[in-house]
Records
---
Amino acid sequence: MFTKILIANRGEIAARVMTTARRLGVKTVAVYSDADAGAKHVALADAAVHIGPPAVAESYLRADRIIAAAKASGAQAIHPGYGFLSENPDFVAAVEAAGLTFIGPPAEAIKAMGLKDAAKALMVQAGVPVVPGYHGDSQDPVLLAAEADKIGYPVLIKARAGGGGKGMRLVEDPADFRAALEGAQREGQASFGDPHCLIEKYITQPRHIEIQVFGDSHGNAVHLFERDCSLQRRHQKVIEEAPAPDMPEAVRAAMGRAAVDAAKAIGYAGAGTVEFIVDGSGPLREDGFWFMEMNTRLQVEHPVSEAITGLDFVELQLRVAAGEPLPVKQDDLRINGWSFEARLYAEDVPKGFLPATGTLDHLAFPQGTAFELGAVRIDSGVRPGDEISPWYDPMIAKIITHGPTREAALARLSQALAETEIAGLTTNHAFLRRLAKYEGFAKGQVDTGLIARDAEALTPAPVPCTRSRSLAALGALGLAGDLPVLAGYAHWAPVVQPVRLGFDGEDILAEVYVDGTKRHVSVDGVSHVLEPAGDRWWIDGTLIRARVLRQGARVSVFWGNGYHYDIPDPLEVSDDQAGGDAVIAPMPGLVKLVPAQAGAQVAKGDALLVLEAMKMEHTLVAPRDGVVGEVLAAVGDQVTDGTLLLALEPDHD
Ligand code: ADP
Ligand code: ADP
Ligand code: MG
C-alpha cells in the first residue's frame, strides 16, 4: 500500500478520497487553485500544493504542475477523482513516465472507451449488446440521413466525444435531421474539440441503468450490481438509487455479465461503470438493455453501491492500484437493502437549472454523517461560510441514505432533505424534496423523461405558508427564542407589533403580539399561535421541528423547505425621505426619546426622535435645516411604520 498519495481534484470527491486514505493510514496531498486556498479539501489534507489561478485550464487541468507537485511532496500515486484529468490517457501516460502510479485503469483501457463510436465497435466484438445505430467513420450527411432512415425514427445524434449530456440531439422527424446533425457537430466541436457524431435508435421510455465494475491487475473482474440513474434533467442525473426498481434476477445477472465482459475486453483494472440504456416501457428483459458508454473512473453516484455492498470503493481502488488482487469474488457479493443519493446543487431550478453562485451563509446537515456506511451519509466539499464560485461545478453535497427496503431508504432521503438547512444562495433543495416525495417515483415508475414530463408540478419555486411567514415575523422581531423571564412579559403584552418582510419580491405584513409564552401572529388574514419548545415550536397545538435563523437583514425559516425573507432596512426608508419635510416612522417601533421641540430651529442631521425596534435604537434626524412644526409622537408610543411623527415648518426661503 502507498504511504502518501496526491489527489488531483477538488470539492467533495477530493474530500471523499482523503477520508478513506486517512482511515488506511495513507498521507494525502491536496492541490488547489487560487480560488480554493481556503477550501475544505485543502484543510483535510496532510499537505497542499498551489497549482495556479482559478481557471481549470490553468490549475486542475495542468497535468505538468500536478505531477510536479506529486514529485515534490513525495507522493507515490495520484488519484484523479472524477472529471478533470480522470479520463485523460495522456495524463495517465505522463504520470507513469514520471515514475508514479495512476489510481485508475491503464491508459489503453481509457483510450478504448474514450470515444463512443470506437467503444461501441469494441463492445460488438466482445458480444455486448449495443444500441442499434450507425457508429462508422463517415460523416457524409446524406449517408448519415440514410442510416437514420434505416434505424427508424426517432433517432438520437451523439457527439462521439460527448459527455455530461452535451452534444446530443433527438430527431423525431426526418425533415429535421440535417439541422440537428449540424447542431450536434457544432456542440461536439465547441465542447470537446471533435465534431464527429454517431447515430442511435432513440429508445422511448428509457431507463438508465449502469453496472459498477471493478478489475485488478491479475485479470480478475467483478460487478457490484446496478444503479438506476433514470431520474435525469437534461440528460444529467439528479437522484440515483441502487439496486434498480423491479429488476428481475435474470436481467441483473445478464447485465452484470455483459459489464464484466466489457471490462475484460479492455483489460480493465480499477473502478469503472458500464452504462446501459434500458427499455423501460414494460418489465425489464434480458434482451432489453444496450451498452451506451463506459466511464473509466469512480462515478459521482458510487456511494449508493457502497451502501448496498458494504464496501469502500476508494479503498478497493487504492488496493488494486497498489497491485493487490481484488479482495472480493463475485460469489461473495450480496445486495443489502436499498440506497438513494440526491445531488444538492447551487442552481436555479425554475430558471432552467441555471447554475447559481454565492456564499453559504448557513449550512447544516442531519446528524451522524461524514463518510461512513450509516443510514444517512453526506459527502460534501464545502463548509458553512464557503463560497460556491462560478469557476467549478456548483455541487454543494450528495445526500445518501440507506435502508432495508426502497420505501425505508426513500423515506430517509425525504427526512434527510428536510433536515438539511442552507441559506445564502439559490439551490435545488426544494426541487429534490418534491422529487423524493413524488408519487410516480415512490412507486418506482422511473424513466429518463419523468422530470421533463412533470416539470410543471416539479420545478416551480415553492411559496411559504402562513406558518413559515409567522415564524419569520418572530425572527425579525427577535422573538423567535425564549423570552427573558426577568424582563417581564408586561413589556410586550398588550403591544401589537407590525412587521414587514420581503419574500422574493412579495411584501409581507404581519402583526405580532406576545401573551405570556405565546406569540400570536396574524399574516395574510390568517392567525396562528406559536410557542417555542426547546428546538421545536408549538404551532396551533402541533409540535413541529423548525428553526428560525436571523442573519443581518435576512431571516431564514428551516422547516421542510427552507425559506429566506428579507427584512427591509428601515434606515434605507428614511434615506428615501431625505430632503422632505416629514419625519415618518420607517418601521414599527416604540418611541424612546423625543429631543425635538415644536418651534425649535434644527440643522440637517440633528436628532429629532429615537425609535426602538427589533431591540435596536434608530435615531431619526432632521432631513434639512429648518424649524420643527408640530410633534405628533410622545415617549412610550408604539407606532406602526409609515406613521407621521413630526414635520418641519414649510421652508419660505
Ligand atoms: P456521467 O453523468 O458522465 O455518467 P457522473 O454522473 O459521474 O458521470 O458525473 C461526472 C461529472 O461531474 C463530470 O463529467 C463533470 O461534469 C463533473 N465534475 C467534474 N469534476 C468535478 C468535481 N471536482 N466536483 C464535482 N463535479 C465534477
Ligand atoms: P454522456 O456521455 O453525456 O453521459 P450518454 O451516452 O451516457 O452521454 O447518454 C446520456 C443520457 O442520454 C442517458 O443517461 C440517457 O438518459 C440518454 N440517452 C442516451 N442514449 C440514448 C438512447 N439511445 N435512447 C434514449 N436515451 C438515450
Ligand atoms: Mg453517460
---
Amino acid sequence: MPANLVVGAQWGDEGKAKVIDYLSKDTDIIVRYQGGANAGHTVVVGGKKYIFHLVPSGIIYDNTTCVIGNGVVLDPEYFLKECADLETHGFRVKDKVLISDSCHILLPYHRLIDEAREAGSSPERKIGTTKKGIGMCYADKMLRNGVRAGDLLDKENLKRKLNHILEVKNQELVKYYDLEPVNPNEMYDFLLDFADKMGKNIINTVYYLNSELEKGKRVLLEGAQGTGLDIDFGTYPYVTSSNPTTGGALAGSGVSFRYLKDVIGITKAYATRVGEGPFPSEILGEAGDVLRKLGGEYGSTTGRPRRCGWFDVQMIKHAVTVNGINSLVLTKIDVLSHYETIPVVVGYEYKGKKLDFFPSQGLEDVKPLFAEYKGWKDDISGINSFAKLPPLCQSYIKSLQELVNTKIGIVSTGPDRDHTIIMD
Ligand code: IMP
C-alpha cells in the first residue's frame, strides 16, 4: 500500500493538522519526519481544540500507530508533557507511539543556546526562532556530537558517549555563550528517566515502516513547518533547520520512495509567516492587523502574532515544483469573506524585469505584481459542498487552481472536521 505525504506549501501554519486529522481515519500509521517541538498543529474535534507539538496529530484516532521518525529532534521534557496532557484528555498515547532509534534527542542546553543566540543577535541577524533549541540540536547531529534515542537503550554506552559529548559541549557553553556547564551525571539521570518511561517504544522504525508498507498498511507522512522554511528551498537564513519538503520526508522516515503516492500540499487562501524574513505579499500596518484578527493568526507554539499577506502564486508554484505536489488543500477560505476585493500576488519583478520563479536569493528586493479578484462578501463558514459556495468564491478557487496549475482537491471552510469540501 502507498505512503501519502502532507506538506506545507507556505511558511508553516497552513492548517496541515486538520488535513492530517481528516486523512487519519483511513490511515494505519502516521509519521512525523522532521522538526520538533517548534511545531504547533491544531486540531478541532467537536468544538474542542487540541494542539500538538511533537506527537503526530493523528494520535487521536484509536486505529492509528504514530511514529517519531529519525529526522525529528525529540525533546523529552516537551514530549512527556504532551503525552501526559493528551492522556488526561482520554487519548491513548504511550502505547501507540514508536520512536526511531536514530532520532536525535534535544537536550535542555540546546534550548539555552538557542535563546542566547537569539538574544545576542543584531536585528539583521535575528531569525525569530521559537527558542525550542531546534537548530542547535540539528547542528550537533551534523557535527556528529548528538545523543540518539537508540543510545538510551545501552546504559554503559550512554554514559561513555555523554562524557565525550559534554566535554566538547561544556567548553562551548562556558567559553562562547557564558552559560553554566552541564553536569554529566545529572544529564545521564535525566536521560535514564526518559529511557525508563519510553525505552520500550524506541525501535528501528525504518525497518518497521517499510515492512508494514510491504504488508499493505497505509502510511501518512506528516510534515511540520513548510516549504518556505525549508533549510534548502526556503528563504535562507530565515528558515528552520530541517527539510519539511518531500526529500526530507523520505530522509526523515526511511520510507522508500517506491511507496510514495500522493504529495498533498497545504496552503491557506492567503499567507502568513512567523519570525523574520522576506515576505513579498505581506500586508503591513492596520490592514495586516485586520486579516490577523479575522484569521486568528497567532502562533500556537509561541503565541506570537503572525505576519499576514495575500496568496502568492509564485510561492505555491515553487512548493509544487520542489515537493512534486499533485493535489492542494486550500484552507481558511472563510476568512476572506470579509473582503470587497481580494488581491493575489501573480508574479514578481526584480530589478525592472519579470521573474518567472521564486528566487533563492534577493526575495526581499522583488516587487510583487498583483491581480484583484472580486470578493463574495457572504459568510461561508462550515459550508461543505462546492455547489453551495457563492459563485464568486467558486471562481476565486478556480482561478487559484489555474494560476498554480495544480488541482485543488480539498477546501476547508472552518476549523472543525466537518467544515470541509471534497472537490473530487
Ligand atoms: P526554529 O524552527 O525554532 O529554529 O525557528 C526558525 C524559523 O521557523 C522562525 O521564523 C520560526 O518562527 C519558524 N517556525 C518554526 N516552526 C514553525 C511552525 O511550526 N510554524 C510557523 N513557523 C515556524
---
Amino acid sequence: MNEYSPGILKARERILVALDTPDLARAAAISEDLKGLVGGMKIGKEFFTANGPDGVRAAVSGQPLFLDLKFHDIPNTVAGAIRSACHLHPMIVNVHAAGGRAMMQAAAEAAREASEDLEIERPLVIAVTLLTSLDQSDLDEVGIKGPVQDRVVALARLAQDCGLDGVVCSAREIAALRDACGPAFKLVVPGIRPAWSETGDQKRVMTPAQAVASGADYLVIGRPISAAADPAAAAKRVIAELEEG
Ligand code: C5P
C-alpha cells in the first residue's frame, strides 16, 4: 500500500489546491499560506510550462504534490516523463487513459522503478478518462462513440487493469466508478464548489461534503480557496464542513 493511501483520509488530507497561475511568487504565497493545512498542491501545465521543475519545488515547498501534466505519448516517452517527474517526489502523477494499455503499463512500471531507485514513496499514477470539457458531439467528431459514462467506466477499468491507482473524474461519475472499480481505486475529483463560493465556469459542481459522501478520495479545489481573500480561512471552512459531514 502506498504511504498516501492509508485507507481513511483525514478531511484536510483530501484537499488538493490547484495553483493555476504562471506567477511563481503568487503560487508560492498561496502555498505558504496553506502549508500544513491541506493535503497538498496541484500543479498543472500553466505553472509548469512557465516555471519548470525548479519553480515547482519553490512553489510547493515540501508539501505533497499532484503533478497534473496528463502525459499522453508513446510508452517509452511517457515512461521517461514519469521517471523525470519522480525527481519532484510527487504524491500523484497522471496520464491520459486514451494513450492505451502499453502506455499506462509503462507509466506504472516507470513510477515503481524510479521511486525504488530514488528511494522515495511511489507516486500514485492515475488516469484522465475523458476530458469533461468534451460533450457528446465533440466525442463523436473525434470518433469516440457511445454514452459518455460508459466510455469513462471502460477507460477507468482499463487503467485499473494496467496497474494504475485511480482516475481523475467529475463529481457525477463518482458513483459509477466506485461501483465499477471498487473501494481502493482512487477517485480524484475537481469541479468542487462549497455552497458559499462562486461557481465560475464550472458547470456540474458538488460541495466538498457531497463529493466525499459520494465516494471521492481527493478533492481538487482551485479558486474557492486560491482566489479567496484569505485562502487559509477558506481552506479551514472547507475542512470544517467536511468534518461535519
Ligand atoms: O478553480 P477550480 O476549482 O475550478 O479549479 C479546478 C482545477 O481542476 C483546475 O486546475 C482545472 O484545470 C482542474 N480540472 C477541472 N475539471 C476537470 C479536470 C480538471 O476543473 N474535469
